[in-house]
Specification:
Helix content is 32%, strand content 0%. The protein is built from 4 helices and no strands. The relative contact order is 0.14.
């Protein structure tokens, strides 16, 4: 889902009773041992940390959007893809 306008948007979601939770795959993947992740992805510890630092923490909601969107909306002090909370 993408807010294609420059105004505030509200996201509402519902979960069924059979699966009352969500899975944040990237967050959970990076909980594995660094050596395992580095081997799977072919990345050094520095690269892994750089990638991990770009993944929003669980519960932070949506992100700020693309550089094009931010420019169009005059939001020059926000990093593309950062948490919007």
């Amino acid at each position: 889902m993408v807010n294609t306008g420059c105004g505030n948007a509200q996201l509402v979601s519902a979960l069924n009773a059979e699966n009352a939770g969500t899975l944040n795959a990237a967050n959970n993947f990076y909980r594995l041992n660094d050596e395992i992740i580095g081997t799977v992805l072919g990345q050094s510890n520095t690269q892994l940390n750089d990638t991990l630092n770009q993944i929003p923490v669980i519960g932070t909601g949506s992100n700020a959007g693309s550089a094009e969107c931010l420019k169009r909306c005059g939001l020059t002090n926000v990093k593309p893809g950062s948490s919007s909370d």
